[in-house]
Write a sequence for this structure.
């Protein structure tokens, strides 16, 4: 049967549909999302949860004249389908295909490039203010999840927006979940709003009565004091959003299309800062995702009828290797604490969470707080290990500098998903960490070549003093491909893996094995190639670099990190300042631009970071 979706002129076409037709479109969108994500992987559960909400938004608003901003943007698949990308949707997250996140270069309906959490209200407020300053008249609506609302920026923006009073609609999409179950006092507060709506309504009514009683000078009138002091008033849940200056509407069923349409219309007509609290089910409409929204938050390929993963690899991820090793260390040293910012599973810390619940903290999507809290713990003699993805640690830069390094505190940063991450694309690539960490005084930065080195570095980091980071990519343990014994880690020392005279390949982390392969290839061409595993991006092994540069006279640095400020810059400085005689130098890494999305291996090869890319760069040199 022909789909209604295919015949519509979207998004305008939604406006003339009956409720029954909108519900049919919702089902068709769900099917399209499930079928596509089962082949491409992606953020399934979050997107399924907002299908009705997205339909309601695009039925009421006139995008792109009206602006819709999706927080994180991982839930915007229905938005993409409804705004001109239905035909292309099957290319989701594929190299050359449409992105898994809103992209301004993909559609005028994507107002902002997003991927990191808790930014939507700030963006929306900025756009609303731009509109006001120009005297224009469009609506601005931000959709933010309850998980993303745990990020400090969201509160900073609510605080400011409430005061400015501009027309702005914030839709709080409350599904009780971040990636894992949402955490913190805010989650309990939202639960109370959800479960006791009658108490909330009573509070709102009383608040409105109080607001309408005249206040004389500095003194609050007698009746207000009486009302505020009454037991009834005190027993009611306070209205955080109203106190911040928003009009609160909700909680309402986020799958009820007519109710959503009515409420968004009302919010638009009323004006001022409006907060609509919708309650949705993550994974809605696909039983395996409803039953296990955590697994289906971000999935690889799966079998649609059963929901079973089609991922055939059974080797461990480096995150799991890290998590297991940390549990082992924690058994030996009770000072070890593990901290995550809403990613216990992604970072491999879920084992630790189960084994040592009292020494484990999920702080919510609050990387800044995670780092500074670690500083507080370290100042009292604990050894905090903060496991955060490279791209999200960017957010806590000042905290690393000011609250950790400047105090010379012993905090270990486990920097996961370093380098190119693949299908999530430019917002998620962890290409800047070497540069931003290397520039901090007193920081140690280690990069393991394989799982054994990762474990050794973790042990070493726990045993040392001062701030240190271990950065490792999104990849599996290389297992049987591993060809080398791991020599003990020495602070600031690299390892000469193969000696040679014609050219030295100085490789960092995941580039060590491809460099060994490239050296083997070049040797067949008659070149005597030295290969160094740099191990430390800071402090760099100066003595080894001077020695090998003077010997080989040609040096190629290979790293899966940004070329600006990466290991290559450090090596170039050493060669320029300390090495006698002429040395030919080249450096390959992630170029100075934002790399697109696609399979990690394809993106690495595009940057020249494959065995043959290294061979080519070496030959050129
Ligand atoms: C700064 C930052 N930290 C972590 C993440 C990883 N992340 C992506 S989505 C998500 C959970 C978001 O939860 P919520 O806002 O409730 O949306 P839901 O997926 O439940 O719809 C997290 C932690 C991120 N995108 N940005």
């Amino acid at each position: 049967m022909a789909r209604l979706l295919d015949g519509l002129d979207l998004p305008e076409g939604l406006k003339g549909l009956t409720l029954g037709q909108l519900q049919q479109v919702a089902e068709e969108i769900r099917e399209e999302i499930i079928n596509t994500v089962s082949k491409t992987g992606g953020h399934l559960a979050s997107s399924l949860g907002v299908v009705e909400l997205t339909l309601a938004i695009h039925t009421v608003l006139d995008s792109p004249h009206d602006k819709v901003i999706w927080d994180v943007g991982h839930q915007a698949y229905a938005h993409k389908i409804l705004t001109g990308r239905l035909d292309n949707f099957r290319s989701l997250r594929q190299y050359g295909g449409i992105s898994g996140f809103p992209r301004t270069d993909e559609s005028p309906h994507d107002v902002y490039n997003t991927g990191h959490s808790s930014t939507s209200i700030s963006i929306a407020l900025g756009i609303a203010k731009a509109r006001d300053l120009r005297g224009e008249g469009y609506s601005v609506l931000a959709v933010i999840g309850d998980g993303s609302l745990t990020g400090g920026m969201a509160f900073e923006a609510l605080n400011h927006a409430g005061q400015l009073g501009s027309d702005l609609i914030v839709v709080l999409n409350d599904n009780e979940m971040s990636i894992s179950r949402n955490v913190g006092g805010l989650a309990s507060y939202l639960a109370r709003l959800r479960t006791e709506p009658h108490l909330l309504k009573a509070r709102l009514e009383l608040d409105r009565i109080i607001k309408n009683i005249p206040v004389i000078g500095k003194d609050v009138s007698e009746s207000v004091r009486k009302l505020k002091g009454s037991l009834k008033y005190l027993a009611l849940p306070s209205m955080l959003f109203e106190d911040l200056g928003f009009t609160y509407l909700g909680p309402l069923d986020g799958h009820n299309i007519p109710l959503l349409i009515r409420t968004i219309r009302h919010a638009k007509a009323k004006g001022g800062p409006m907060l609509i609290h919708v309650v949705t089910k993550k994974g809605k409409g696909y039983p395996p995702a409803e039953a296990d929204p955590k697994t289906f938050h971000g999935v690889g390929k799966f079998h649609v009828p059963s929901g079973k993963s089609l991922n055939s690899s059974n080797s461990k991820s480096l995150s799991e290797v890290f998590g297991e090793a940390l549990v082992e260390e924690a058994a030996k040293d009770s000072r070890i604490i593990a901290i995550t910012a809403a990613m216990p599973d992604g970072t491999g810390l879920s084992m630790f969470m189960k084994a040592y619940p009292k020494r484990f903290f999920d702080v919510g999507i609050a990387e800044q707080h995670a780092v500074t809290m670690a500083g507080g713990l370290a100042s009292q003699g604990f050894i905090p290990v903060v496991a955060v993805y490279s791209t999200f640690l960017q957010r806590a830069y000042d905290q690393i500098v000011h609250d950790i390094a400047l105090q010379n505190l012993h905090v270990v940063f486990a920097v996961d998903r370093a380098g190119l991450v693949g299908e999530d694309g430019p917002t998620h690539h962890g290409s800047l960490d070497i540069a931003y960490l290397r520039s901090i005084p007193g920081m140690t930065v280690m990069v393991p070549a394989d799982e054994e080195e990762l474990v050794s570095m973790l042990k070493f980091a726990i045993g040392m003093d001062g701030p240190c980071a271990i950065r490792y990519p999104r990849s599996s343990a290389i297992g049987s491909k591993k060809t080398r014994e791991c020599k003990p880690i020495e602070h600031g020392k690299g390892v000469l893996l193969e000696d040679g005279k014609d050219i030295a390949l100085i490789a960092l982390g995941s580039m060590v094995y491809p460099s060994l392969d490239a050296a083997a290839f070049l040797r067949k061409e008659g070149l005597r190639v030295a290969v160094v595993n740099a191990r430390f991006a800071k402090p760099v092994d100066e003595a080894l670099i001077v020695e090998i540069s003077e010997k080989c006279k040609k040096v190629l640095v290979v790293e899966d990190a940004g070329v600006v400020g990466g290991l290559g810059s450090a090596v170039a400085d050493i060669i320029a300042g300390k090495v006698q005689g002429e040395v030919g130098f080249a450096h390959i890494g992630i170029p100075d631009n934002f790399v697109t999305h696609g399979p990690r291996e394809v993106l690495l090869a595009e940057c020249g970071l494959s065995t043959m890319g290294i061979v080519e760069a070496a030959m050129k040199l």
The two ends are 61 Å apart (CA to CA). The first strand starts at residue 67 and ends at 70. The CA atoms of residues 378 and 515 lie 38 Å apart. The pocket of thiamine diphosphate is lined by residues 46, 49, 72, 74-75, 116-117, 145-148, 173, 175, 177-179, 282, 297, 341-343, 365, 367, 392, 395 (CB under 6 Å).
